[in-house]
Amino acid sequence: MAILSVPYFMGEAMPGFAVPQPNHVLTPELPDASPTERMAVLYGSVAEWVEEHERPVVYSGDCVVIIGVIAGLQAGGIHPTLVFFDAHGDFHTWDTSQSGFIGGMPLAMATGRGEQTVVIGAGLSPLGDSSVVLVDARDLDRGEDVAVAASGITMCSVAEVAGAVDDRTPLYVH
Which of 25, 61, 100, 103 could share a disulfide with 9, CB 3.0–4.6 Å? Predict the structure, then answer.
């Protein structure tokens, strides 16, 4: 197992980000650009690191990191089911978000919806809906609730996770 520390929130450094030792701290040179362009570079670096390590454990300041982790697993020949534990759906796009907060969009982005700058920068092939299990999402916003319901992703409670995943498929647990 290898541990990666990604001490960033929305493409900005987070001083004092504590992670179990030993770990590798990711500190790529990020462009002076928009948050999505910075995150595209950041999570492209995550993808490169994940590809090179067996059983990676990644600590990050935001959920957008899933894009880099999945891209790295894919580059290493692993095509996982994403088991996404979060009270929020993170399934917004620019069309459904009232706040415009990128941190509310990573699951939608990872499935090929909405904003794709980070997805392209990280080298992610979007996941099919059938490869996503959204666990315990109970705080879905207006618009996001409709998008999740119309998608093909599986929603379940924590108690139902074992029955919602195929134990013959690699899992990425977020």
Answer: 61
> By percentage, how much of the chain surpasses pLDDT 70?
100
What does the alpha-carbon distance between residue 142 and residue 63 come to, in Å, rounded to a whole number?
20
Q: What is the rounded average pLDDT of the residues 2-12? A: 96
The pLDDT value given to residue 167: 86
Instruction: Return the CA Rg of the chain.
Output: 15
Q: Which residues contact 86 (CB under 8 A, 6 or more apart)?
A: 63, 107, 134, 135, 136, 137, 174
Maximal CA-CA distance, the chain: 45
Strand order of the β-sheet with 132-135 is 154-156, 132-135, 81-85, 171-173
Phi, psi of 91 (to 5 degrees): -120, 25
- Euclidean distance between CA atoms 29 and 67, whole angstroms: 19
Q: Are 131 and 147 in contact (CB under 8 A)?
A: no
Percent of residues, the chain, with pLDDT higher than 90: 97
Residues 42-64: tens digit of each pLDDT: 999 999 999 999 999 999 999 99
How many separate helices (H) and strands (E) can be counted in the chain?
A: 6, 9
Among candidate residues 131, 133, 126, the one with its CA nearest the CA of residue 154? 133
